[in-house]
Specification:
This protein is an alpha/beta fold. The chain has 19 helices and 25 strands. An 8-stranded antiparallel β-sheet has the order 3-2-4-1-10-9-11-15, with helices on one face. Strand 18, helix 11 and strand 19 form a beta-alpha-beta unit. The protein binds fructose -6-phosphate. Fructose -6-phosphate binds next to helix 9 and helix 17.
Length: 603
């Protein structure tokens, strides 16, 4: 989704902005732009639809300046175009602004304040820069004008603003959209994601919603909504530049698929003590032990991980658990139990749909726990408790290691709660052993990736659609497998409960339709095989992913058997590889699927 970078106090501002924007490419965007000034009247505003490389070409190597802001845009209001790309400049050319988020009342603002202004494009952002110019004619300082504008804006935003009459300052403000200040020696940076500026500094300061920050090369001043000075400690970002490089891999997605066994081991190391027992923040366990129902709230892949989590929490911890889509939950809230506990699953910790629910939960003063991969992310800061996924940065848009990390941390949590509640199932579940075995099984499959690539080359070569089917945990994985396939290969894929197919969807099966069955559960194996036979007799081409103890003649992908509660960790790996190779064979960019963004910060 949209990304912001900014720098003040370094000679090669344009290069630094470009490098920063490249680091944000993974989040998804359709246009980009930069504004750079040397503070003495040499100002450059360059925008381009398409890739950062296109922007770089347009810059032609001759953009000089020590101050600048840059932006990658993922279109919300107004189609992707150079005109709609940020930065936007006020009509008098004095103010230039970049924005992440959505201004909800932009039509009202236009009507009330900006009827005489000529808008160049169709974005909600453009009205903000005009509004600041409008207030600047009615207030003493740019800071006052900015603050006035903020007071009438409703919605989510992270802004960075440059005033040509005050080129030694970048003004910054945020509400609900992420933004950080990075501290350097005689320079400072701003960014919507620490990764963007990690090559410049690893020391960052968070900004809270409603604050306004005046960033100079040698100092920053944070003010609250009414102008009081705020002191905030900086922190060292726990990110390694190597973690965000592809190394020898052709795509981040493949690197991240391969990393999954080591992520499992890292999670075990973080959440077990020297005696090998599960060790989770006692405050979290206490909260869970006293709740009567858990509500898992998440989107997309994280939502699918939530279904595996439900099974773990119900079986190991004995707590009834519901799984909800964030975007539905806020507007169709179910009847809540007396003592609910909310678990937010979010790789990025920034997903606006999930945050919207958390805001409501906080208003109701109900307990919440975020499981996220990003320390300090919005959902982490705003929930009562956080457990980290320790998966390392996930750069590919298609989530892989975050999915398995979420399930592993949910297994840790469920086992710890179950033990605290003296649940017999938890006492019998040896988390360390079972998770280690799952990690080894995952490793076996990633080592066979080339075989999977060859197997599916013809199977998915020119199909328009495909189905995954399974029952129980295999159904949960089928939903995730289908999402992975459709989001990057553009094959229309559906994940179905195997028994449900015959109640309507089987009508879509025709000669050659690919149907992939996932079979890891002894109880339901025969039934799923029966459903595969049903589709075969209607012309479907089938492929079976089967645990070794259940495998039979002709099963194409036999995977190691693990504890049934952890089967999703293993059976999902071939489906990730299937999506990866199908995309490669079709010639699409695996890491940057069309229309998608990594961290979805709009509702
Ligand atoms: C799909 C994918 C998305 C995310 C969803 C939620 O591969 O990555 O479906 O899972 O946008 O994102 P987070 O987990 O960051 O809240």
């Amino acid at each position: 989704m949209c990304g912001i970078v900014g720098i003040i106090g370094k000679e090669n501002a344009a290069d630094i902005l470009l490098q920063g924007l490249e680091k944000l490419e993974y989040r998804g965007y359709d246009s980009a732009g930069i504004y750079v000034t040397n503070g003495q009247g040499e100002n450059h505003l360059i925008k381009s639809q398409g890739r950062i490389a296109d922007l770089q070409k347009k810059m032609n190597g001759d953009v000089n300046g020590t101050i600048g802001i840059g932006h990658t845009r993922w279109a919300t209001h107004g189609r992707p175009s150079e005109r709609n790309a940020h930065p936007h400049t006020s009509e008098n050319g004095r103010f230039t602004l970049v924005h992440n988020g959505v201004i909800e009342n932009f039509e009202e603002i236009k009507q009330e304040f900006l009827q005489d202004n000529l808008m160049e494009g169709e974005t909600d952002t453009e009205i903000v820069v005009h509004l600041i110019a409008y207030f600047s004619e009615r207030t003493e300082t740019t800071k006052d004008a900015f603050r006035q504008a903020l007071s009438v804006i409703q919605g989510s935003y992270a802004f960075a603003l440059i005033d040509t009459q005050e080129p030694e300052v970048i003004y910054v403000a945020k509400n609900k959209s992420p933004l950080l200040i990075g501290l350097g020696d005689d320079f400072n940076v701003i960014c919507s994601d620490a990764m963007a500026m990690l090559q410049e500094t690893s020391r960052f300061v968070e900004i809270a919603d409603g604050e306004l920050v005046i960033v100079r090369a040698d100092a920053i001043r944070i003010e609250d909504q009414v102008g009081n000075l705020v002191f905030r400690e900086s922190y060292e970002a726990q990110l390694d530049l190597n973690d965000i490089e592809k190394g020898t891999y052709p795509y981040y997605m493949l690197k991240e698929i391969d990393e999954q066994p080591s992520v499992m081991r890292r999670i075990l190391a973080h959440y077990t003590n020297e005696a090998g027992e599960t060790s989770v923040d006692p405050a979290v366990i206490d909260e869970a032990v006293h709740c009567d129902r858990i509500y898992i709230v998440a989107c997309g892949t994280s939502y699918h991980a939530g279904w595996a989590g439900k099974r773990l929490l119900e079986e190991l911890a004995g707590i009834p658990t519901e799984v909800h889509l964030s975007s539905e939950f806020s507007y169709n809230m179910p009847l809540l139990s007396e003592k609910p506990l909310f678990i937010f699953l979010s790789q990025s910790g920034e997903t606006a749909d999930s945050r919207q629910v958390l805001v409501k939960i906080n208003e109701l003063d109900l307990p919440s726990l975020t499981l996220t991969n990003v320390p300090g992310s919005t959902l982490s800061r705003e929930a009562k408790h956080t457990l980290l996924l320790h998966a390392g940065p996930e750069i590919a848009v298609a989530s892989t290691k975050a999915y398995t990390a979420q399930i592993a941390v949910l297994a840790v949590l469920a086992s710890a709660i179950g033990r605290a509640k003296h649940e017999p199932a938890a006492a019998a579940f040896d988390l360390s052993t079972e998770l280690s075995l799952a990690a080894a099984a995952m490793e076996t499959i990633v080592n066979e990736k080339m075989m999977i690539g060859q197997l599916i080359e013809a199977f998915l070569a020119d199909t328009r659609n495909a189905f995954y089917i399974g029952r129980g945990m295999d159904y949960f994985v089928s939903m995730e497998a289908a999402l992975k396939l459709k989001e990057i290969s553009y094959i229309q894929a559906e994940g179905f409960a195997a028994g449900e197919l015959k109640h309507g969807t089987i009508a879509l099966i025709e000669e050659g339709t690919p149907v992939i069955g996932i079979i890891t559960d002894k109880k339901t194996a025969a039934h799923t095989r029966g459903n595969l036979k049903e589709v075969e007799s209607r012309g479907a081409e089938t492929l079976r992913i089967v645990s070794d103890s259940l495998a039979g003649k002709g099963d194409q992908l036999v995977i190691p058997e693990v504890h049934p509660l952890l089967s999703a960790l293993v059976s999902v790996i071939p489906t990730q590889l299937i999506a990866y190779f199908a995309t490669l064979h079709r010639g699409y960019d695996v890491d940057k699927p069309r229309n998608l963004a990594k961290s979805v910060t709009v509702e």
